[in-house]
Amino acid sequence: MKNRKKILQKAVGLSFLACIIVFQGCNKSYLNVNPAGNKAATQFWQTSADATSAVSAMYANLHEWTNIAFAPIAVESMGSDDVDKGSTPTDASFMNDFHNFSANSGEGQISDFWGGEYKTINFANQILDNVPAINMDAALKARYLAEAKFIRAYAYFRLVRAFGGVPLRLHVPKSASEYNIPRSSAAQVWAAIETDLTDAAAVLPQTYGSADVGHVTKGAALTLHAKVSMYQQKWSAVLTYTNQVMQLGYSLFANYEQMFRTNNKNNSESIFEIQNMLIPNNPAASNSQYSQVQGVRGVTGGGWGFNVPSADLAAAYEPGDPRRDATIIFRGETTPEGDAIAASGDNPMYNQKSYVPFSLYVSGFNEGAQQDKIVLRYADVLLMNAEANNELGNAAAALVPLEMVRARARAGNAAILPPVVTTDKTALRAAIYSERRVEFAMEFDRYFDVIRQGRGAAVFGSRGWKAGKNEVWPIPQNEIDLSAGVLTQNPGY
Fold first, then answer.
1. Quick one: 288 and 146 in the same domain?
2. Of 387, 185, 231, 366, which is closest to residue 293 (Cα–Cα)?
3. Which of 301, 366, 407, 416 has the largest CB neighbor count within 10 A?
4. Where are the beta strands (DSSP E) in 236-279?
């Protein structure tokens, strides 16, 4: 208990120091770090500028290593049938333990993922605990609190689908009894997420001016709420929230491949994306490694080559589906941006959605540091709406949003991707599942989609997935040890 309190106090302190870093600039200001602007903790939480700095730091934390790179790839992607480890056989071979479902509670990536999400929660909690007392514009204050509630909900969403029930921290710990707390049930965590998202959606604006691009919106809160409801099979709620988002002015970006390029950030389809950028003369602030760890190996401006598309994914597309070539960089091809990929190399395929043209590489910076990570997009709203309608017995209504997604993909070529016409509930469900797979391939959803659909054993069983165990990953053993057993392990680990 005593050791755990000291460690948690240290974590809270470190996050607080990070949170009071002042970020300068106008557009995407929270990416430009100015350590010289640090304030003493006793002087912070006094002004509107302090609140703004804290919110900026909360967003900046989202592109930190444990939030966007190795640990999320391990926990959120490696279990999927869409991916292989990539890189070279001996490089980070522990990633195969996630792919083969042999990862144990001592695995460092599990601990990193857990710690990264609780760090995010701590950023949000500090804002929610301290900003209410600041004398500042009431509307801006309410918006900042709503943004923090969304970010906290997003972090808990990632935790609960990865681990099941987890400790529910809704305030910064202030007393000894608040440091070492047990796991809440999954149902309690889902309920807390929904409360935060309801509160956030009631306050957040639909859009922002250019200076605040990347901040969460009402559409983001409603979309994540729909997704949270989908994981709980609350189909009426999914329909309600997606119908609301469909009235907010989002639209499918016409060119699927170009949607993921850096010159089309925050486009008409994007609902929430983690903002990354390359800031001239400031490599330390240009620190996202999302693209770098997945980039093409062996070329200047490429990357490390992890989390590569699998042969199973490549075979999953219908004949002629352009999303296949827009999702997968094949060895020997030339990308639409003109990069020639060698015909030989460590891996036959790479993730094109995280790709940044090699010409944009700047020496001394992480490869692809400027690539955003799209978290929520409008195609997901449409396919969630289709799935909810079908589950509620509204097959005809389900076909409409499903066809919108397929029509964008076929891009006017009537010879491919014919409209789905079946109204049989089982057949239509299978069509929607298939559409989700190819539409969101390599976007870190496939693994959890299969599990929530109850198909884990059928899809992943050949790689060792076991029902009653592998629906979740193990709780990090170091967290259990620090808690002196207050935290309990998931069954089977």
1. no
2. 366
3. 366
4. 270-274
User: Which pair of structure tokens corresponds to residue 254?
Assistant: 């016409």
The conformational region for residue 366 under phi > 0 = left, psi -120 to 50 = alpha, else beta, is beta
Note the pLDDT of residue 41: 65
Alpha helices in 82-217 (DSSP H): 95-99, 108-130, 138-163, 186-201
Copy the structure tokens of residue 85: 């480890």
pLDDT for position 111:
98
Total number of domains in the chain: 3
Q: 26 to each of 29, 32, 212, 281, how far by Cα in Å?
A: 5, 10, 9, 17
Q: pLDDT at position 43, please?
A: 86
Shared-domain flag, residues 12 and 132: yes
pLDDT at 151: 98
Q: Both 28 and 150 in a single domain?
A: yes
**44/18 Cα distance (integer angstroms):** 12
Collect the ranges in the chain with pLDDT lower than 50.
1-36
Q: Are 384 and 242 in contact (CB under 8 A)?
A: yes
Burial class of 318 by CB neighbour count within 10 A (0 to 12, 13 to 18, 19+):
middle
Find out whether 172 and 193 touch, Cβ atoms under 8 Å. Answer: no
Which residues, listed in sequence order, are joined to residue 489 by a DSSP beta bridge?
none
For the stretch 230-259, pLDDT in tens is 999 999 999 999 999 999 999 999 999 999
Domain hosting residue 124, numbered range: 1-199+457-493
Residues making up the chain, counted from first to last: 493
Q: What pLDDT was estimated at residue 177?
A: 82
Amino acid at 320: G
